[in-house]
Amino acid sequence: MGTAFSDMPLFVPNRYRGKLIVVEGIDGSGKSTQLSLLSHWLRSQGYAVAFSEWNSSPLVRQTTRRGKKKEMFTPTTFSLLHATDFADRMESYILPLVKSGAIVCADRYACTAFARDVARGVSRRWVRNLYRFALHPSLNFYFRTPLDVALGRILGGRDALKYYEAGMDLGLARDVEESFRIFQGRILDEYEAMIEEVGFHVIDATLSIEEQQGIMREIVVRELGDSLRNGILHQPAGRDLNGKTTTSPVL
Ligand SMILES: Nc1ncnc2c1ncn2[C@@H]1O[C@H](COP(=O)(O)OP(=O)(O)O)[C@@H](O)[C@H]1O
Ligand SMILES: [Mg+2]
Question: pTM for this one?
Answer without folding.
Answer: 0.92
